[in-house]
Write a structure and sequence with these properties.
heterodimer, A: MetI-like fold, about 0% strand, globular, B: about 375 residues, alpha+beta, six-stranded mixed β-sheet, about 25% helix, disordered N terminus
Amino acid sequence: MNRLSWFNAVSLTLGFAFLYIPMVILIIFSFNESKLVTVWAGFSTKWYGELAQNEAFLNAAWVTIRVAVFSSTLATVLGTAAAYVLVRGGRFFGRTLFSGMIYAPLVMPEVITGLSLLLLFIGIGLDRGILTIVLAHTTFSMCFVSVVVSSRLVTFDKSLEEAALDLGCSPAQAFRLVTLPIIAPAVISGWLLAFTLSLDDLVIASFTSGPSATTLPIKIFSAVRLGVSPEINALSTIMIAVVTVGVITASLVTKRAMVRQKQDELAAARTE
Amino acid sequence: MPFQSDRRTGAALNTNVFAPWEDPQAKPLIQFQNVTKRFGGFTAIDNLSLDIFEQEFFALLGPSGCGKTTMMRMLAGFEKPTDGHIMLGGQDIDPIPPNKRAVNMMFQSYALFPHLSIWENIAFGLRRDNMPKRDLEDRVEEMLRLTRLEQFARRKPHQISGGQRQRVALARSLAKAPKLLLLDEPLGALDKKLRQDTQFELMDIQEKTGTTFVIVTHDQEEAMTVASRVAVMDQGKLMQVSTPDRIYENPNSVYVADFIGDVNIIEGRATANGDEAYQIDWAEGQSPLTATSSTGFSNGQSCHLAIRPEKVTISADRPADAINAVQGKVLDIAYLGNLSTYYVELPNGTIIKAQSANTRRISRRSFTWEDPVWLSWTATAAVLLAN
C-alpha cells in the first residue's frame, strides 16, 4: 500500500476534521454527567434515561416517523410514475417542459415551497396537522425519487419490456412483472432518500405543521432556542446512530450483492 | 466461403422439394403489402411487398440501417406501418398489439429477465396464457430438453454462459409455439466457433418444431447457411429475394453480387455474339471477354461482368483452351490457411482477385509476389449485370 504524502495526509485530516468534529463533540457531551453542556463532569447515560421519560419528545418522534413513512411511500409512487412517463413516454407534447418542471423543486428555496403550501392549505381550508405535513413532504421529496428512478430507467434495457409484451403481457403487467422488480433497488433507495429528507426537514414542516402535530426537528429547534440541554445531545446522538447504521447496512448489502453476482458470473464462465 | 447444409442441397435431389414460393397455389403465411414505414422524414421501409411461406427459414440480410430490423419490429407489433398492410395467415395484423399476436421474438440482447430463473424465464409466456400447472411444467421441461438446458433450470441468467443464454432466449420464444418466430441477430454475441455450431442447432430446431422462422442478420454467411430463402435489402428496398445458391450464383445487381461474398467487377460494353452469348469490350488494347447471359443486352450497352474469385483460375502459362484469359502480375497474396487469394494487377491497372485452394504446403506455392501470371475463366463463370 502506498504511503500518503504529507500534503495529502494534511488535506485529508483537515477535511474530515471539518466534517466530523462538531458531531464528535455532540456525541461526547451526550454522555456528560453535568447539566451544563459545555463543562465535562464525568461519564453518564442519564440523559438517555431522561429522554425516554420525555413525553413531548416521544410524541414528536412518533409524528416524525409516521410523516416520513407516509410521505416517502407516496413520493415513491408518484416519483416513480413520473420518472417512468418522462423516460419511457416517448416524445409527447410538453415533455421537455415537464422534465424541467419536475426538477425545479430541487433548487427552489424551501421557504418558498413552504410558504406556497401554507397559502394553499389555508385557501382550501385544510387544518394543519399530520396530513398537511405528509402532503408537503411528498411534494418536495417526489422529485428526488423521480431523479433517482429515472437515472436507473435510462440505463434499463428497453427490450426487456418489449420481451414481456411479446410474451403476452399487457403494458401494466409488463411493468409489474418485469420493470418494477428490476428497478426495485433504485425505487428503494429513492424511498430511503425521501424518508431521510422528511426526517430532517425543518423549514417546510414549520410552515405546514399545526398545534396538533409537531415533528422532531421543530421540537429540537424550539427547545434549543430556550437553551441547549444534554437531552438534545442524547437525542441527536441516537439519530446519528440510526442514520449511520442505515447507511452502512445499505452499502454492505449492495456490495455483497455485487460480489455474489461476480462470483456467479465466474462460475458460469467455467462451465463452458 | 458460404456453404449449404446437406439438408437443403440434399432436398434439391428429392422430387418433393420444399419451395412453396414456386407454387402459385401456395398461400403465404406473411404478406407485406406495399408497406412503407417513415420515422419523421426518414423512410425506413419504402413501398415494399414480400410473401413469406409457412415453415420457411427466411433471412433478411443487409447492412445496418437498411430497414431489416424495422421489418421485424413491424411483424412483432412494436412498430406500425405508415402505409400498406401486413397480413399474417390472411388476417391484417396492423391493429393487433404485440401481446395479442401469435408471433414471438428472440431479441438481439436476449432480453432475459434477470430476476427470474431459467425455468421461470421459459415459463413466463405460458403463465400469461394461464396454462394449467401440469401442462406448463411439461412444456417448460420439453423446451429445456430441446435446448439442452435441463441442468441449468434453477440458475439465474447471469449465472450461465453466453451460448447458454442464447439457448434460453430461443426456448423462451418457442415455448408458446408461435406461428412465427422472429430472430434479431440471434448469434451476433457469440464467437465464431460457437456461432457455427448454433447455426446448425437453430436449423435442427426449426425443422423439429416446424415453426416459420424469420431471421435478421448482417452476416451473409449466416444467412446463406440457415435460410431457405434470403432477402437482400438496401435502403428500405428489397434488392433480391431468392434461395441462397441463386443469390450467390445469379445475383441480379452489382449491389447484391458485391454484398454476398467476394466478387470481381469488370465494366465494359456488350455486343451480341450468338445465342445468349455476348462479347464485352472492357479495355483498350485488350481482347474482348466472352460471357453468356439469359437477360438481353443491346449492342453497345454498358454492363458489369461479375466473376467470383474462386471461379478464376491462375496459371503460369496461358491455358490453351481458355475462352477468357488475361495477363497480369501478382500484386498481393492473402493467405487464409485453406485458401489463398491472389490480387493480380492487369496492365491497365485493374485488380482481379483469384482464389485457389492451398493443396500444397505454403513453401511449395507456385506463385509469389511480382510473378507474371495468366488468369482465365469460362464463358459461364461470370454473370453479366446491367447495373
